[in-house]
Every structure is written in structure tokens, then in C-alpha cells.
Amino acid sequence: MSLLGPIRVLELGGDWSGLAGMLLAQMGAEVIRVEPPGGEPARTRAPVAHGVSLPWAAFNLSKQAVTADLAQPDGRALFLELLAGADVVLESFPPRHLAALDLAPQALIARHPGLIVTSLTAFGQDGPRAGNAATDTTVMALSGLMAVTGFAEMPPLRLGFDQIGSLGGLQAALGTLIALYARGADGLGQHVDVSVLDAARLANYREPLRWEFEQAVETRRGNTARRGRGGFTSNVWRCRDGWVTWSASDDPRRARSFFDAANEMGIALDWRDHDFAQELPADMDQARLDALEAAVAPFFELYTRAELEEMAREKGWILIGFLDLSEAAAQPQLAARGYWTEARFGDATLPIPAYPFKTSAEQPGPTGPAPAPGQDNARVYGALGRSAADLERLRAEGAI
């Protein structure tokens, strides 16, 4: 039996909820996307390949899809019929949108006391920003993440891809699972209110705490990391065929091993007799750290990423080469973990991620590609007793 086998989820709204619904679907829940006739506008979001929006396809694997115009009485009636057999409503409409349709979360729970309604919005259901529209970058800016990303001489830097919505999606999936667990004890549903901004702040927990304790605001430091006495060390180094990440270790044996290797090549000789057990990089001020890094920089340029990684494995250094997206996808570690499976994207079959964790009982993972708009209307609504003629009438009237 799948992990969430008996659970039925109705997913409504735009693309904020996509990851949460997909995670629940890949754990075995029956997730039904309820979209307006013709499908959600998010289905056209770029980039598009093989006639399919890749963001939409990536976050809607393993789901089913029906259409219903919730603004029409007949469409709303169909949704309420579906609701009778649902365990969860996962929605990402703006606050009060469902209430305007007489489908407020608390009203749905009053109708079905065991129902869990998970709402995922940019700022949550209350507060001064609750009704504001937002993008991934909007919330990223408000979270403080952009303020500490990039280099001091440049503007705040956006992360290289939409990520904040995914942080919210993870919390929505987690909140839903916790609510399902609680329902197992008391039989009662509840409203789970997830703010993407709150989720983003959780990912940036360290800097807000530093402000609370020290009233200090971290500056953008690029590819450096703070060490014990407040100095910063580089994390990124140029090598013969690209870049590697390495930082001077605070393990005396590991640090000595690295400098011994550099010394053998005639590099960093001024540090040949340094006792790292007496003075670790964490004990050094910025001037000493700068001198240390200037001494070792030529060592990396002697070798390729693969050669440096091989030395690191042999000697126990923490060093790894940077991969581009194609190299990252092809790395043997992912294949060894069974990370990849396949799904249809339009007219193509492409590799897709399976699931980020394994269980000893059953491995979660995708069961099919993202559905076309309304592709399951006949089966899902037919199970409610709706005839083909009835569905054709509803389609002609624009209700589905």
C-alpha cells in the first residue's frame, strides 16, 4: 500500500501550490487538480518545450486534472460533490478569494468536519500584506535573503531561479501531513495557513538572530564565509578547468595535510612550519587569512577539478568541483540513488527526479506526467454519477 494511499487531495489555484501537491501525490495521495475551463494560466509559463510549460510540468507530475468554473453555480456544485470524498483541499488563491465564492476554508470545514484545508499564499491569511500580489522575487526581497546574497559593491542579488515558492510548498506539504496525523487522533480537520514569506524567513534564520542579539546587519560577502574571530575566507577557487570550493579547515590534521601538498609543489612555503593545532584559521584575523589564501591560490591552478577531487578523497579534504547543470544531472551519485525516472512531456520522454527520500517500506516517486486540462473529467465526474450527456451540457455552458 502506498504511503498516503487512501488520501484524496483537491488542489486549487495557481502555481504556488504545485510542489506541495506533487509531493503528496508522489507519496501516494490521489491529487486532483481542479482548474478553470481551459486550464490554469500558469500552464503557459515560460520556459516552454515540446509544447509544455516546464515549470508547470515539473510540479504537477502524478496528478489528475478536472475542470470546474467555481464562479458558476453548476461548477461550484460539482466541486462540492467532489468535496464529499476529499480529505484535503490544497489552495493557493489570494486570501478571501474562496470566501467570495462561498467556499471559505472554515465554511468547508464546517460542512465536512474531518476536512483539512491548506492555504498557501505569499503572506498568509492576515497581516498588512495579506492581500498583496507577489512574485518569487518580491518575497525573496522581503525575506532578507537577497540582502545577504551577492557582493558588497553590487545591488542585492536574486537567487538564480525561483526558489521561494518551493520553500512555501515544502512547508505546505509538511503542514498538511501534520494535520492529517492530528486528524488520526481526534477525527477533526483544520485550516493550515502557510505564508511563503514565513517559509523564506525560516531558511534565513541565522541573520535575523544575529540582529536580535548584536543589532548587526550582515553585508553581502560573495563567495566567502565568516570565521571565528570575525574574518572571512574564500570558498571558491579557480583551477585549470573551472572552479572548486574549498575553505581552510579548522581541523589541524586536515589543514596540515592540505598545506603539505601545496608545499611539495613549492607553494605556500611560508606556511610550511605553521602549527595549525596552535593557530587555526578560525583564530586568525583578516590580515592573516588574506595572507594564507594568497599563498595557496596558485596550488589550485595546477590541477583540474577531477585531479583536485581525487586528492581530496585520498587525503580527507573537504573540496569539490563546481558542476554546470548538465554535469550535475549526469553525476553518478544521483544515478546510484535511483534519483531519475522518466515521464512524458508533450511529445518527448524526458528524465525527471524521482523523490528526495527513500523508505524501507516503499519508495515514493512519480506515477505519471502532468495531466492535460480536464483530462480526467469523464472518469472523476462519472464516479459521482454524472452522465456523459450531463458533462457535455456543462461543457457547453462553460461550467467545466
Question: Your description of this structure?
Answer:
The chain has two domains: 8-204 and 332-396, 3-Layer(aba) Sandwich (Rossmann fold), CATH 3.40.50.10540; 224-322. The protein is 37% helix and 16% strand. It contains 16 helices and 15 strands. It has helices at residues 18-26, 54-58, 73-83, 97-100, 105-111, 136-143, 164-186, 196-203, 206-214, 252-264, 286-300, 305-315, 325-330, 332-336, 377-382, 388-396; strands spanning 8-12, 30-35, 48-49, 52-53, 64-67, 88-91, 116-121, 191-195, 224-226, 232-234, 236-239, 242-246, 319-321, 340-345, 348-353. A six-stranded parallel sheet has the order 5-2-1-6-7-8, sandwiched between helices. α1 (18-26) crosses α7 (164-186), α6 (136-143) packs across α8 (196-203) and α7 (164-186) packs across α8 (196-203). It starts with 7 loop residues before the first strand and ends with a helix.
Which key phrases capture this entry?
transferase activity; elongated; 16 helices; 37% helix; single chain; 2 domains; 6-stranded parallel β-sheet; 400 residues; Rossmann fold; CoA-Trfase_III_dom_1_sf; alpha/beta
Q: Would you spell out the secondary-structure blueprint of this structure?
A:
Elements: E1 8-12, H1 18-26, E2 30-35, E3 48-49, E4 52-53, H2 54-58, E5 64-67, H3 73-83, E6 88-91, H4 97-100, H5 105-111, E7 116-121, H6 136-143, H7 164-186, E8 191-195, H8 196-203, H9 206-214, E9 224-226, E10 232-234, E11 236-239, E12 242-246, H10 252-264, H11 286-300, H12 305-315, E13 319-321, H13 325-330, H14 332-336, E14 340-345, E15 348-353, H15 377-382, H16 388-396
Helix pairs in contact: 1-7, 6-8, 7-8
